[in-house]
Specification:
It is a single chain. This protein is α/β, with parallel strands linked by helices and 220 residues long. It has one domain (2-218): Alpha/Beta hydrolase fold, catalytic domain (Rossmann fold, 3-Layer(aba) Sandwich). 36% of the residues lie in helices and 25% in strands. It is built from eight helices and eight strands, in the order E-E-E-H-E-H-E-H-E-H-H-H-E-H-E-H. Strands 1-2-4-3-5-6-7-8 form an eight-stranded mixed beta sheet, sandwiched between helices. Strand 5 (86-90), helix 3 (92-103) and strand 6 form a beta-alpha-beta unit. Helix 2 (66-79) crosses helix 3.
Length: 220
Amino acid sequence: MYFNANGVELFYEKTGQGMPIILLHGNGEDHTIFDVLIKQLSPNFTVYAIDSRDHGRSSRVKSLNYEEMMEDVAAFIHGMRIQTPILYGFSDGGIIGLLLAIKYKSILTKLIVSGANTHPGGIKWFTTLQMKLVYFFTRNRKYKLMLTQPSITETELKTIITLTLVLAGDKDMVKDEHTRMIAKNIPSGTLIILDGENHSSYVSHSEKLYGIIKPFICGR
């Protein structure tokens, strides 16, 4: 299915029934990374798995900006009349989730972010070097996005009123101290660092993620 958000056609998959939960993938991916999670959530949740602009089956654009991607999700929530959903965002999806919770204070009931960063300096140096090399040779706009954005301040994180779970693997490409900073500055933030996991090992096509987030999304 498609939804027109700010002149962009967003592809999304809707399954299940119950409390609404929105799933946002990372850079260069699409909603299909959540194939296992969707099946696990669908018996108890209405799941909206979205392809971000310029990803998957959504419209292509000339440039990418996290703020615009966040406004796409806000338009989707308002346009679809989804009442205070839970949002789970992985990597870029987590950045979008943070920006959404910062600007639209009451739009979400709960937020989960995995492997998110608030500025490019939050990514480990070797991964940054790899991204710079790829961008140098390809000029790929998705790599430019990661190298130049986002720019979320600690002051902005402190304004988030949504109950938030912050996840990362202990082998994540995001610096451990950066992930801890994010959780520390969100007033209702809870942190889980996952032993033995890297950036996406517990997320992409994984049976692990549901068990990790279930206590948070099902708790009162």
